[in-house]
Amino acid sequence: MRCGGWGSSQAGPGGAAALVLLIGVVSLAANLGCGAKPPPRNTRVPVSVATAVERAMPFSLVSTGTVEASGIAAVSSQVSGVVTRVAFREGDHVRAGQVLVELDPRPFHAALDQALAALARDGAGAEAARLESERGHRLFEQDLLSQAEWDQKRAAAEALAATVRADSAAARTARLNLEYSSTRAPISGRTGRLSVHEGDYVRASSTDPLVTIIQPHPVLVRFAIPDREVPLVQRYRRANPRVLVRPAAAGAEELEGSLVFVDNAVDPISGTLLLKGEFANLDDRLVPGQFVDVRLVLYVEPRAVVVPARAVSSGQQGPYVYVVNPDSTVTSRPVVVARSADELAIVSQGIRPGESVVTDGQLRLSAGAKVSVRASVGDKP
Prior knowledge:
Layout lengths: L15 H19 L10 E7 L1 E23 L5 E6 L6 E2 L4 E5 L2 H36 L5 H34 L1 E3 L4 E3 L9 E2 L8 E16 L3 H7 L5 E6 L7 E8 L9 E8 L11 E18 L4 E3 L2 E7 L5 E5 L1 E6 L2 E6 L6 E5 L10 E3 L8
Parallel strand pairs: 1-20
Antiparallel strand pairs: 1-19, 2-9, 2-13, 3-5, 3-8, 4-7, 5-6, 7-9, 9-12, 10-11, 10-13, 11-12, 13-18, 14-15, 15-16, 15-19, 17-18
C-alpha cells in the first residue's frame, strides 16, 4: 500500500458496505502516518556571553624573582679560644651589639696585664732617658759635654720613647683582643644555623662563620627584564613604578613594594637588565632565597575597554569577536587587541563598553546565527 492511494480490488454487492468502511479506515491511517509534518527544530546556538566594560588597567612587565635580605653578616671570631658561652638560640632575633658567643677571657686578661707591665717598665726607662738627655743638652750648651756624648744621650731617649709607643700599641691590641673574646652582633636581624657550641675551640683564621645574621625587614626582590623592554622602564622609572610579588604557594596574596634599583648595564650573556624591588615584609612572608612571581606595574591606563581573553578568536583576517545583537543574532567583528593581562584582553578598537561578546560556543557560530544565552559564572571582566 502506498501513502495517499490504494490498490484496485473487486467486491460483490454484498460486501460493498464493508469495502467502503475499510477504505475509509485505511485512508485515515495513511493520512495520519504520512501526511503529518515533524515539529520544527530549535536552531538557536547556546552560548556564554560577557559584557565589555571600561575600567582602569595597569600595564605590567612579568618576571620571576628571588628574595634576598637587605643586609647579611657572616659572624666570625676575631681571636682564637675556647667557647664558654653561647648567648642566643638559633633563629633568634638579635640586636646590633648584642653578645652572641663568649670565649675564655683568661688568656686575654693575662696578655693585657703583660702588655701593661711592659709599658710601665719601658715608660719609666724612657722618662729617665728623657731627663738625662735634657741634662746632657744643658751641659753641651756650656761646652761641658762633647757632641758625641750628647748625641748618644739623645738617641737613647728617642729609642726608649719609641719603645714606649710600641708597648702602648701592644697594650691596645691586648685590650682589643679581650673585647673580641665576646663576639657581638654587627647588625640587627635574625640568626641562622649555629656552627659552634660550648667547649669548641674557635680559630680566628677559620673561614666558616659562627653564625649568619640576615635583616628580614625590609627585603629585596631581584628580577630581570629582557633588553627589549628597557626603554619602557627608562620611560616610566621617574613615575615610581610599583613592584608586585606573589609567593609560589597556592592562594598566596600579592605584596606591594617599590622599585629601588635599576642596573646600569644589560647583561650581555643573558640579554637582561637587573632590577630590585624593596618590601617592608613586616609579617615575614618573604624569606631570603625564595622564588616569587613579579609584576612591575609601570603605569595605569584609566579607561581601557576590557573583555575576557577567551572571547577573542583568531582568523585569517586577524583577531575577532562575536557580538550579540538585540535580536539574539551574532555579528563577527574584527578587533585590535592592545595587550593581555590576567586572562583579560584590552581592546583598543572594535568594541564599545556595554556590548555583549560570546565567550564560549564560538566554534558553532557564523555571522547572523541566532543564539540563546546560557547561565555562566566568571565571565565578567
